[in-house]
Amino acid sequence: MDADSIGRFDVEVDVLVIGYGCAGAAAALEARACGAEVLLLEQAGGGGGSSALSGGEIYLGGGTPIQQACGFTDTPEEMEAYLLAALGPQADAEKIREYCRGSLDHYGWLTGHGVPFKPGFWDSPTWVPPTDDGLMWLGENAWPFTDIAKPAPRGHRVTSEGFGGKVLMNALSAAVEAAGIQVRTNTQALQLIMDGPRAAGVLARHFQDRIAVRARRGVVLATGGFADNPEMVAMHAPLLTGLGVTSDGGDDGRGIRMAQAAGAAVQRMSTAQVGIALVPGLAVRGLLVNDVGQRFINEDQYPGLLGQAALFRHDLAVWVVLDEQAFEEVPEAERWGVQPGFVAETIGGLEQEIGMPEGALSSTVHEYNRYAALGEDPYFHKAKQWLRPLEPPFAAIDVRRGFAPPEMGSAGRGGAEVFTLGGLRTGLDGEVIDLSGDPVPGLFAAGRAASGLHGHGYLSGTSLGDGTFFGRRAGAAAAAG
Amino acid sequence: MDADSIGRFDVEVDVLVIGYGCAGAAAALEARACGAEVLLLEQAGGGGGSSALSGGEIYLGGGTPIQQACGFTDTPEEMEAYLLAALGPQADAEKIREYCRGSLDHYGWLTGHGVPFKPGFWDSPTWVPPTDDGLMWLGENAWPFTDIAKPAPRGHRVTSEGFGGKVLMNALSAAVEAAGIQVRTNTQALQLIMDGPRAAGVLARHFQDRIAVRARRGVVLATGGFADNPEMVAMHAPLLTGLGVTSDGGDDGRGIRMAQAAGAAVQRMSTAQVGIALVPGLAVRGLLVNDVGQRFINEDQYPGLLGQAALFRHDLAVWVVLDEQAFEEVPEAERWGVQPGFVAETIGGLEQEIGMPEGALSSTVHEYNRYAALGEDPYFHKAKQWLRPLEPPFAAIDVRRGFAPPEMGSAGRGGAEVFTLGGLRTGLDGEVIDLSGDPVPGLFAAGRAASGLHGHGYLSGTSLGDGTFFGRRAGAAAAAG
Fold first, then answer.
1. Which of A77, A98, A193, A463 is the least crowded, having the fewest Cβ atoms under 10 Å away?
2. Which of B236, B257, B268 sits opposite A267 (nearest CB)?
3. What's the CATH fold of domain A278-401?
4. Tell me: the pLDDT tens digits for A67-81?
């Protein structure tokens, strides 16, 4: 809608930020730090967004104080090489380079805004450590990435018992309040207001009231992805149809669609994070197999990459197979209530019980055990520390059955929850790029409303990570007008 | 660009069709049959497009004269059930229903325009029959589809020795000429001319000259997909990066981008047909395995679905493994020059030669042979007629090495050639749908510029099929103004 058709703006600010998750908070804080008058709009009743429901991991490296305190050395170059490989194919090389070079600074910015990290190290595959340890592997120590970059753990987990996203958002929200940033909740953006080719504000709704907001210098879209919008999922990411969604319910693609109406381009709309109902500590000690008993990946990879392989390559028809020792080795706190659904004294008995062809699982376990006894995994190169012949009795867990850890809610169809990684095409300062490849003046985006670091792949911490990192960039660029 | 800014139009017609492949020809013919004055623009030096380079298979059914002559009964309902399953997930149910109900009529339209089909039946998996037989299976007789719809072969192959696309386009071109449709070749569309919200023509280039064409009633985009545009592939279909392309070189996404500039929506941009360098007749008599010797699909499925599984699930790292009898059973004409790259007296010797882990291929072949002797394939349900224990000596063919049948050109990286299935969102009459879900007045699209029947899956014949079927619809709708 055109600015001329707005009789009078109800509110005028320098920078308008839409969406109060981590990307919106970071954009607002940085715009305010640049001297701009800032307004944050949020459609929910309070700030936090999907960020507040997340595990609270942020992908940081290059030798942070936490890495150093835990005895690890790291460089931006090794971090860059790993992210390029693990987030590909078609990861954004320019954004990854900026992100890695700026990582130490970004760590300082986060801690400076009250985000806590504790120098403890959790040394086993997991979605979220059951302790409050602040450093964890996110797949850097798993093949094939060990051949590509020198491994260092870069999962920086905001100090918390359980999921840390709420701690992150509490810290950023306190900073937003302290900075004197205006916040309007229960306020839903409806459409951009354009002044010619330039984004000049937004028309929003607060219950029955329409509010026209003018942004003198810039608008930042930090509205999240589109996993909560079934029509957009069907149009752009058909393989995600019907799955559970990791979000606060507000990832409705609103910002993406508003910007598209102003000529913005979108990219890589089919990509997604796939969280599956799998306990990484159990899977790594056993086998991850498909419905005909075949392994398909080294079980020590970052569990989100296991999830992508399970969904995109095996339609989520996957099982964790393990023995008693493997189960007992994992503390109950890490098991998230998962119990083996099937137990048998022999592998033949197990495959019969779970309905696999006779011989399917037996031949896989036979091969695995034969090599594990030699300390080798020539099939998928799982690290030697996790290799041990499995012994009876055996158990199997059907990943499709899901699980329900208290913080996570219940997983959807097939034991998976997803969020989308595709979105608005943006430049290094979060500027939204139009269909001709030029910036839309005055319009910026960050977080999952934008296509960020990611190609096809995903790692924990890269969504809060690029959301806050490029959110800051977007806020500063918007403030500069 | 706005119509007001065009001083004078160089050409005025009722219906303007851009792109002279099968969809453009069908649109032009039907618009002309409705009484419209029609102009066809083509950027190449002559008509044909990627359609002319195709195998010339058209997916038709419901009891065509060819099916009847070959002794098969069929119904639109069984055809619909198969297409919904094989082209999914998220195949377009409404388009598929229209397509199946209209299939007999469409067969009549094609033959009425001189497209020849011969009532002979080719009864073995293939990309294109080596004979001029006019009917072939396109996966209808393979599990799991045999559980979903009553199988009938629906691959109608335009009568030809070798690839039939050129015969199809020769027939349609003769009909275009006979109908008095104007054709301008070497003429590249640059941008749509809009009259307010309505598509009113196009600005084009003929060598150095700019030509403004006014379309009084409608514009039909039949410009093909975007597989030849690396930037669009990187943005929308990252897993296709660097692969060979099945096209005439002109699938540059031009029409998609022109329509997007007018507010059109796109959908399912990551999907693709994947032709791999695999001889279906050999694969079905042996095994298709990945780099660690695992089978992953019943080898009697339509080879395009084997190709999608090979690319999207196994990064094209796939092999055909077979024995001497299997190789000898396939006539040389069907082998397209493929020779086994690796031969060994034992499976152990073969896996060593091709660099698989010791035991990988052996355990797969052991399981396959054990069940084949019983006439069973509980792993992937290949039809009994193809099950036989493999016997020494054994051979392996690396699909990544590709092959070069005379008509096909050479396959690209990894032995695969692709074309894109995503494109403009259209309705049942080819009307282009905008970002708000409304038609763009005066604008239509068909063929691979549009998102057609397809969800994630693809079958031969459905691209020429929906291109001509919905091309006709688009032409008629455009002529109606």
1. A77
2. B236
3. Flavocytochrome C3; Chain A, domain 1 (3.90.700)
4. 999 999 999 999 999
